[in-house]
């Protein structure tokens, strides 16, 4: 019976282990591999990374490693079979093999150090992450930001890990902007809404403003740089905050597009274009000048260069009740010709029109398409702008201490569910933040 494989201690703290998976033509050929040590910097871009261990710590399926028997979990074994080449050695970093999993004190110390190095290894190789190691793999990055985090513990439930890490980041940074810069919506339903998606699996690939307080590449200051409220109370799944309630979402015009709408994808583009038409028609009775219309449309500074174009775009959205461009001129610049459906005419005009006006309007539409998963919103007290599509009428707009942008919260019986950041004209630079913060309310995010 082969002897069990024993990990050799790492020669230095900047080293990792790599698995050289030996080739085999046949799928049922027993797995053979070698383990070697390399400096992390020397291994950049020279291996693929894999994580399949943390749900089941004990291996049960044997493979041959340097002539010894190494037990791996069944799902790790299946993954190795799929990754094995027929003719060449494949270098891999596999957490369950490359990090010593034994219970010895020296192994625990090594494991804690190795998972902190994972932040760097994740930047050097493509990797389908597990949940625990995805979080711990960010440790190296957070340490560069002087954020003190709890020691890695793979036996701790993932929702507790995420909550502890989030609280540690808020406390170290004295800022809540990690929470308030992304939308809520996790694949782990037991998580509270305030756990940032930066730390969790994303259910869909969405176009979204940069994290850590940036909207459209710009850092705002809706709370005038105020400090985050850090409560001594740390009730499980709850996060206390201080803020000011601004109003209620009265109007939401948007669609269910998960990704940015491209004109080449006609189905999704029509959905977003319909929302744009409805938005423009909803403002048609309001006396706004062209600059104000643009300010409500987008949070991207780049769009401000299109001020002279927006008038044509807005007018075309009102077809067939245009005020500047004659409706027949729009029809003449389409392929479909005269149609009863205004959406079809406008869609054809923007995609295929060759007139100067259609080209100007197309520039605006292309810019707006970048954020098609953001709804057009308006509050009960007249503030307009954009918020992520998961918001609903009846949600509340709040300014929170330590946040850089307004947020959308949904009242629940136990407190408020965090929904998403928002861009609302007239409050992005602290215009509505109180001079006396004693007037702020304490609220609980759940």
Automatic annotation (TrEMBL):
Pfam families assigned to the protein according to its UniProt record, in alphabetical order: HET, Het-6_barrel
Record-linked InterPro entries: HET, HetReg/Transcr_Mod
Chain ranges of the Heterokaryon incompatibility domain: 47-119
Protein's UniProt name: Heterokaryon incompatibility domain-containing protein
Organism: Apiospora phragmitis
Lineage, highest ranks first: Eukaryota, Fungi, Dikarya, Ascomycota, Pezizomycotina
